[in-house]
């Protein structure tokens, strides 16, 4: 009887944590999901209009990244939302974010819809979206 209560309690805790976003399934194991400050209405409006200053990179961003990274409901970190990107950089670093872009992460497909991008382009796109590069 005690064993059943313990198992039921453990399942309840795991379900509650999963429902509140405390745990997410990632790469075959559990990873703790940290709290990210939600973007404000101004952040969302800004994300809809930001574009890389480099013309060729702007074309790649428009066709491959903008559909998700400029829409709050897409659950992708918004372009220009520093708080949304800072934590990702501290958790995974630049190389980890590049790996996520190439291999996929969560809802993001592998190659991020840019099958012809080079590592340099991915790095520049991440830099732009995270607010670490000038934009217009």
Report on this model:
With 136 residues, this protein is mainly alpha-helical. It has 2 domains: 1-33; 36-129, Cytochrome Bc1 Complex, Chain D, domain 2 (Orthogonal Bundle), CATH 1.10.760.10. The protein contains 6 helices and 2 strands. It has helices at 2-19, 41-49, 55-64, 66-69, 82-103, 119-129, and strands at residues 23-26, 29-32. Strands 1-2 form a two-stranded antiparallel sheet. A hairpin with a 2-residue loop joins strand 1 (23-26) and strand 2 (29-32). Helix 5 runs antiparallel to helix 6.
Q: Which descriptor suits the 3D outline?
A: globular
Strand percentage lies at 5-15%
Looking across the biggest beta sheet, what order are the strands in? 1-2
How many helical elements? 6
Sketch the topology as an H/E string, one letter per element.
Answer: HEEHHHHH
Largest sheet features: 2 strands, antiparallel
Any idea what the CATH architecture of the largest domain is? Orthogonal Bundle
